[in-house]
Amino acid sequence: MFAATALIYPCALAVLCLGAGLLVDHASGRFLSANLLLPVGAAALIGLSQLTTFIPGLAPATPYAIAVLAAGGLVLARARVAALAKLVRARPLPAVAPVLVYLIALAPVLLSGRPTFSSFMALADSAVHIMGADYLISHGQSYAHLDLRNSYGQFIDYYYNSSYPSGADTLFGGSARLLGLPLIWAFQPFNAFMLATASGPALLLARRMRLTGAWALLAAVSAVVPALVYAYELFGSIKEVTALSMLLASGCLVADYPRWLRGGASGAVPIALVLAAGISALGVAFGVWALAAVVVLAVALVLELRARNLNRSRALALIGLGALSGLLAALPTWVDLSGSLQVAGNIASTGNPGNLRAPLRAIQVFGVWLGGSYKLEPGGASLQITHVLIVLTFLAALLGAVQLLRARAFALGGWIALILLAWLVVSQAVTTWASAKTLMLTSPVVVLLAWGGVAFLRELPPRRAGSLAAALLALALVGGVVVSDALQYHSSNLAPTARYQELASLNSRYAGAGPTLFTDFDEYSLYELRDLDVGGADFVYPPPAVAAAAGGYGNPVRLDRVDPRALLAYPLIVTRRDPAAPRPPAAYDLAWSGAYYEVWQRRAGAPAALEHRVLRGGAVAQCLQIGAEAALGKARGASAQTSLVAAPAPTIVGVALASSPHPARWGHQRSGLVMSRPGTLTARVQLPAAGAWQVWVKGQIMPTVKLAIDGRPLASIGGQLSGNSLVPDVVPPIAVDLAAGTHTLTVSRSGTTLAPGDGGSAVLDALLLTPAGTDPAALRKVPSASWRSLCGTRYDWIEVVPG
């Protein structure tokens, strides 16, 4: 699966986009540069996938439709395909740019050697896009059949039934489905590929500034992966990454307007498709950047008319065909324009900053941020170096503006000026979340302008001195971006592959058996369990009937908070394996148990409990509570007989983390220890009996951590992350045979490595030991009149049930 998603999938995407780009080029006058074929082809495929999913009956045919479109282009332009192949062999340097960008963008996944994605624990929006892409390709824009009583239906309805932009999602879903790939593993490669398509336009823009060869290549790559863009790509910001490619492609088409504006009416099709794709991907908010291109082209059109390079009828034909192409390519957006405007307005004005603790700094637009997170300011010397590099980039951008004038690239200069103006105006008019998106989309343009400063220095006399100054400036620009990206690569958190594969197996095993109550806080389960109609009580859209089980977004789920009757709607409950978590109510039997999850199935005809109560305290205190429940059961049961069902509490030996010796510089996060530096925690545990035991580690552990007992290595744990940092979960238990008495347990984090995510989350929340072979489904049932027979044993909960 790793090779299919990380290596084969991008190649297939490249073929699809190349074929579609060649078809557009063939139809519009054959003027497109080879460096524009991929983004223009992607734009055409976005337009097609938007149309096919707009008609629900055609949605499942989307993968085949994009394949047919691409094949048509490859066949019609087969002579150019052969010419392109010869060109790549003769001048391979331009083809290196998208490959380099892809490798940089997907570095955490590629170097992990497993199918995963790097947006984990950064922003759960990725889960929405993965789920939405799957839904749109399966059902199109048809939402009447959704079950709004559960989270899956609510998520789809809230986002995609309200004109939420889906252009990137439909291309992603259609292309991944064409190869039969799980969308969850194809998600990050798709983002990396779309970012790579932006390198072609960036290379052309660098050449417009009179950079050539390796200079243009370095400019293009560093401009496409500056610190803020790399951060957005790492956390899977599919809309912005796709829109960025369209934005830079529109800049190229604006700069190159004489080649198509003076030709036939079909010359306007590429720019129309690119702008429409940006709107489909990002929403009508992309209209701000589209307006920059339209204004410059309008001025160019007027000048061409005055210079008699263009007559009025041809100008009207260009405008008309361009408008028609843009209308069809983004038809779903235009059909519900009021809804699209409302979505854009909500995003622009929301007070919810998402995963941002504070607004981003405006200076981040210069592409350098020498810290592990784009959300936090670098500390110490890193901050000082960051500021120095930002000043250098700013001065280089000023020289770049002069270079545009020297190169007489007035159209490009006007476009860049309007992009910068749009950034300044929009950032003042919107709130934190939208302002950050604007900053990200503007950063590549600013970095490209700074590379114009390199071109300026290269042309200064004397040539040797100018070339040396240009080389030093280029080194600073490239070095700042590379180090910034490397620090973020090091801090990335990768999704746990094995856990999601287990969820996928559950989806296959129990498909159609839902609705299913999911008690783990992980919204990616909405995709992996998409055939089970999932409801998560602690999701942002919980099932109303069981929302009280969590008491709010991200809080641990406790089924005892819910009226037992509310659970009648759920034939299945999926829980995370956790020795400290009580089992579901007595009406559910354990149907399946894996490394991470347990599936509990409601017995056919099992009635709702009359009462469910969590028992507290020791055996004496619990005996009194049991008696009270028996009396209540007698009153509730009236003339009918009632029984008491109790869930025995498991034997758990816990470790006092805070009082165990550990490095003083390990911080604290809620009840856990943050293993931010190398070191070892040493804990002593007292076991009451000899035999087979299981060691459970609870926390968020991305880098490799070693576990040992009495000096004997037990396991190396790494890449074990929960769906969200708010709710830590346990990793699969580790079996060990131990004698009764005292044992020494150690948890060690080694020194820094170059492995992806080595600087990621490393929080140890709990260490637990339980006897092996304990039955998590064990229950004791007695008639209510015999309640005293339950006394003397500790229980998690007790229920009063009919019969």
Task: Report what the structure shows.
Strands 8, 9, 10, 12, 15, 16 and 18 form a 7-stranded antiparallel β-sheet that branches. The protein has a 5-stranded mixed β-sheet with strand order 2-1-3-5-4. The chain has a 4-stranded antiparallel β-sheet with strand order 6-20-7-19, covered by helices on one side. A hairpin with a 3-residue loop joins strand 4 (588-593) and strand 5 (597-602). The radius of gyration is 30 Å and the shape is globular. 51% of the residues lie in helices and 14% in strands. With 803 residues, it is of the alpha+beta class.
Structure characteristics:
803 residues; alpha+beta; 4 domains; seven-stranded antiparallel beta sheet; five-stranded mixed beta sheet; globular
Class inferred from helices and paired strands: alpha+beta
Query: Percent of residues in helical segments?
Result: 40-55%
Shape: globular
Tally of individual domains: 4
Q: How would you state the average pLDDT, rounded?
A: 91
- Number of extended strands: 20
Output the radius of gyration.
Answer: 30 Å
Q: Which parts are unreliable, with pLDDT below 50 for 5 consecutive residues or more?
A: none
- Bin the strand percentage: 5-15%
What is the multimeric organization of the chains shown?
single chain
Main β-sheet description: 7 strands, antiparallel
Task: Note the gap between the termini.
Answer: 51 Å
Number of helices: 27
